[in-house]
Amino acid sequence: MRYDEIDDKHDPFPMMVMENPEHSPTQCYFRNDEYGVWLYHANCIEFMDILIKKYPEGKFDMIFADPPYFLSNGGITCHAGKMVKVDKGQWDKSNGPEMNHEFNMTWLSRCQKILKPNGTIWVSGTHHIIHSIGYAMQQLDMKILNDITWEKPNPPPNLSCRYFTHSTETVIWAAKNDKAKHCFNYDAMRKINYGKQMKSVWTLPAPNGNEKDFGKHPTQKPIALLERIILASTNEGDLVLDPFCGSSTTGVAAILLNRKYVGIDLEDDYLQLSKKRLEEAIKKSSVKDKEVHLCEIISQ
Description:
Blueprint: E1 27-32, E2 37-41, H1 44-54, E3 60-65, E4 76-79, E5 82-85, H2 97-114, E6 115-125, H3 130-139, E7 143-151, E8 168-175, H4 186-192, E9 201-203, H5 223-233, E10 239-242, H6 249-256, E11 260-265, H7 268-284, H8 287-298
Parallel strand pairs: 2-11, 3-6, 3-10, 7-9, 10-11
Antiparallel strand pairs: 1-2, 4-5, 6-8, 7-8
């Protein structure tokens, strides 16, 4: 099937020809129609505005967002046993609490509009932004379902010795609004948790070496975290969006679990990294592999 022949009846995400927006190229960087994988080089706000016009009733079953934490402001951290400056890039620099919150409201409001009526969104963050995220969700009349604490077993030490060691991140899970009948795969979560109800504190290690074979992103999440999120709140064949996709861990997990994926990022270096990771995941994946992988997750 040629791309110019694709339409809504055959392709769940036919977005090859797009407008020329002000702040980004908004073009397809990589796609695989067989596996339902689309990666876009775009400003996510402009891109979502286009999607809202095209799909006014919503398009996505689930969104995972790992937005800028606004940490890169001259602080220090520990990396590989050495003191280093916190400088993830220009995209991570703070513009002050008011502007940061306005930014969070701007992209969250778009996410809310492009969710399907029963869709949900997961947003990760540290204390630097997560309270703004939660407040913005309340302002937008989203329904907050859970706040997940992701505990890292082996976090970097606190070099100043003036604070507790930062060892957690928060992931807020919210429905589009109070009317949404959200998906929650309770039985799958219970199986993962040895037959017991899963609690909202998840202890999972940071990404291992194998997950960084093609390079790394400064805020890269472990595949296990995204697998759990996707397995908990979607069904096979569902469409997942990551508006700040970075290295596309969300996409890798979606492929492994037989979900469709749309990723958006502005940074060319991370798009190259995403493309390599997505191609590798597709290469290793087959229907049988997905079934075996899902059984492995549930039997852990």
